[in-house]
TrEMBL record:
Residues 42-251 form the ThuA-like domain. InterPro entries: Class_I_gatase-like, ThuA-like. This is ThuA domain-containing protein. The lineage of its organism: Bacteria, Pseudomonadati, Bacteroidota, Flavobacteriia, Flavobacteriales. Coiled coil: none annotated.
Length: 259
């Protein structure tokens, strides 16, 4: 065999061997990819009420369930405070208090929920979540404030002070909205305010020029997002409010721009 033919044969064999190795690598990567399950985060929506019960709760739950269908998370709703145990809570990436009222957890359940947040669990509060657990200061700081009072439902102007957050970036600088406008007390100074309501645009405001109505912060190991909106059933039909809720969920799940 000539030197030229020998060289060509050697190159051919080398290329075949390289192709085999690449095939093995691709097959291995494909197998590894197939072995990794797609993890869909679970969200626990807690709706227990010991005081006033909002008619919009059921509409709120169904709205969250609808949002989950196209946004890769699962909604599990409960009224049972017994679900606040270690074994159950570890299944969830996020716990949403949807218009809960007054004392909804006993002392052991409070301790378990505190541990959940300390270990990286996340919290989202909607509307009356701030009208909950007044004798548990840790919870008040987690939410960011406690409900104090409210005037009659009416239209008001919301000032969007931070439009970089996932819950607000779809909004203009102002948003005209009809709701029940909470006045707050014991406001946590560490919250990052996203929206405030213009008290000159409605009657009954008591928090002054900077009246927060939605905010977020990190608290003792977890993320917390709160919106004071969501009293009425009609609010949950508003695409802007739906996107506001979805952005809050995404923030709590770590799907913001920094992740």
């Amino acid at each position: 065999m000539s030197f030229k033919n020998t060289l060509l044969l050697g190159l051919t064999i080398a290329l075949i061997l390289m192709g085999c190795e690449q095939g093995k690598k691709n097959a291995k990567e494909s197998a590894t990819s197939e072995e990794l399950p797609v993890i869909i985060p679970k969200i626990l929506v807690f709706t227990k009420t010991q005081g006033y019960r909002h008619q919009a709760i059921e509409k709120g739950v169904s709205t969250l369930q609808d949002l989950s269908k196209t946004n890769s998370f699962t909604i599990i709703q409960t009224e049972n405070s017994e679900d606040f145990n270690r074994e159950n809570l570890k299944k969830y990436t996020l716990v949403i208090f949807l218009s809960t009222t007054l004392d909804v957890l006993n002392e052991l359940q409070q301790q378990t929920f505190t541990e959940y947040i300390n270990q990286g669990g996340n919290f989202m509060g909607v509307h009356a979540a701030s009208d909950t657990e007044y004798d548990w200061p840790w919870y008040g700081n987690l939410v960011g404030a406690y409900f104090k009072s409210h005037p009659e439902q009416q239209q008001a102007t919301i000032e969007v002070v931070d439009r970089s957050h996932l819950s607000t970036k779809h909004l203009n600088e102002t948003w005209i909205h009809f709701d029940e406008w909470y006045n707050f007390k014991s406001i946590n100074p560490d919250i990052n305010v996203l929206m405030q309501v213009d008290e000159s645009s409605y009657t009954g405001g008591e928090n002054g020029e900077r009246h927060p109505i939605a905010w977020y912060h990190e608290y003792e190991g977890g993320r917390s997002f709160y919106t004071g909106l969501g009293h009425t059933e009609e609010a949950y039909d508003d695409p802007d409010f739906q996107q506001h809720l979805l952005g809050g969920i995404f923030y709590c799940l770590g799907r913001d721009d920094s992740n």
